[in-house]
From TrEMBL:
It is found in: Cell membrane. InterPro entries: SecG. The lineage of its organism: Bacteria, Bacillati, Bacillota, Bacilli, Lactobacillales. This is Protein-export membrane protein SecG. It holds the Pfam family SecG.
Amino acid sequence: MYNLLLTIFLIVCVILIACVMMQPAKNNSDAMSALTGSAGDLFAQKKARGFEAVMQIATTVFAVIFFLLALALVYLSSH
């Protein structure tokens, strides 16, 4: 059981890394906005649509699976 969960965990790790790397970049080329907080862009954020929305959902799902599998592996290794 432990080896099966560990194999699934490793597969989920690779998929999670791929999901994070495939997300579109949010190009904010102004370096000062990182320092000042860019208050002018507060309401400029748009809701994710299309590919970006799918990647956000996939990343969230695989992150939850990652944490649940990590907890299950810790539990099984301690017992």
